[in-house]
Design brief:
By secondary structure, the protein is of the alpha/beta class. The protein has a domain of about 200 residues: 3-Layer(aba) Sandwich (D-Maltodextrin-Binding Protein, domain 2), CATH 3.40.190.170. The strands form two sheets. Strands 1, 2, 3, 4, 5 and 11 form a six-stranded mixed β-sheet that branches. Strands 8-7-9-6-10-12 form a six-stranded mixed β-sheet. The longest helix is centred in the C-terminal third of the chain and has 36 residues. Bound molecules: calcium ion.
């Protein structure tokens, strides 16, 4: 039996139609040219990241490649970096309008569309990556996210997770809550609101402007992502105090949204491929960040003289107290946001004893 014939037999068995194909050359040709011989479909995926941006942009590329490969080229996806087709902050509108069929971004950018959106990226003292996936896939998270995006004709998906981020780079030590007074720190979103209540001056700067602002003293501190991306940005050249943990982003979800009409027009197998590829990359990004972050953290401390420290307990306690207040106030501003936060908060409270007994206990035991 030729290898081609073996392949066709295997493929036929897989689709459960071996009987129809037995001994029939014409049918063989039919299956070899694609049993679903409809036209090829071409999709666009717009992102909020610079081209091939480490971890984030590369994960968007991976989603596109997987869909193209798994579909045998029946559905091809072309990735556009920020600014190539639409701007970084136009991804939501572009996919909603069908200018692109997919978008890779972060839900915290869309607070202006729906206040609830930011609860699907990461919130201060919120869920870790593992916990977030649990809430999304096996709790109420995904259904709530779908409810939030439905009015925009969008289907949301978790399309990656950076894991726990770092607390940021500071040009002076943080020894008490008082050290936040007057501190100019790049920290967008709800985290910025929290440090403002501690007397800091939160500044929102795009990634490309952070390094020069920190080096010139225009800002005193900045958060960015974690060791891998922070090392690549050279932030250690501008400040030496590197604090953990990223209390403001304990497990940041990247999203991969799909235009609902385009998705519904796909046959069921391509729909499964699209969803499956995104879910695969959601987990893959976390694995990549975990590997690259540990190496970069080591290099920052050993090769670049960075002082890696934990925020003092007093500081963490106050950040947590203020964060809870900020989140409750934010959620109370509209009913859907309140519903989302109530669900996420209830799960956070319920899962904490388990995470502490599982990952927490084994991590503590490693240093005995
Ligand atoms: Ca960040």
């Amino acid at each position: 039996m030729s290898s081609r014939r073996q392949f066709i037999s295997a493929a036929a068995a897989l689709v459960g139609s071996a009987g129809l194909l037995a001994g029939c050359n014409k049918k063989e040709e039919a299956i070899s040219s694609g049993s679903n011989s409809q036209e090829k479909i071409h999709w666009k995926l717009v992102t909020s990241w610079p081209a091939n941006f480490p971890g984030l942009g590369t994960s968007a590329n991976r989603i596109a490649e997987l869909i193209t490969q798994l579909s045998g080229g029946r559905l091809t996806v072309k990735v556009f970096a920020a600014g190539e087709l639409v701007g970084a902050l136009e991804v939501f509108d572009a996919v909603s309008a069908g200018i692109a069929q997919m978008g890779h971004s972060g839900a915290y950018y869309w607070k202006g569309k729906s206040r609830a959106a930011q609860f699907f990226s990461s919130v201060p003292f919120g869920l870790t990556a593992q916990e977030m996936n649990a809430w999304l896939y096996y709790g109420d998270g995904m259904a709530l996210w779908e409810e939030v995006y439905k009015p925009f004709g969008l289907i949301p998906n978790a399309g990656g997770n950076s894991g726990t981020q770092m607390g940021g780079w500071f040009n002076k030590e943080i020894n008490s809550v008082a050290d936040f007074k007057g501190l100019k720190m790049r920290m967008p979103g709800l985290g910025g609101e929290v440090i403002q209540r501690l007397g800091a001056i939160p500044v929102n700067l795009p990634g490309g402007e952070i390094f020069s602002a920190l080096q010139s003293g225009a800002i005193d501190a900045t958060e960015w992502v974690g060791p891998y991306n922070d090392l690549a940005f050279g932030l250690y050249k501008a400040a030496k105090n590197y604090y953990a943990p990223g209390w403001h982003e304990p497990g940041t979800v990247m999203e991969c949204m799909i235009n609902e009409k385009a998705f519904n027009a796909l046959p069921a197998d391509l729909q499964a491929i699209v969803k499956g590829a995104i879910r695969m990359v959601n987990h893959d990004m976390l694995a990549e960040f975990t590997m690259r972050n540990q190496k970069a953290l080591h290099d920052l401390a050993k090769q670049h003289g960075v002082k890696v420290k934990l925020f003092p307990e007093e500081v963490m306690r106050e950040l947590k107290r203020v964060s809870d207040a900020v989140l409750d106030e934010e959620a109370a501003k509209d009913p859907l946001t309140a519903k989302v936060w109530a669900s996420q908060k209830a799960f956070r409270d319920a899962v904490t004893p388990w995470t502490d007994m599982a990952e927490g206990a084994i991590i503590r035991a490693r240093s005995l």
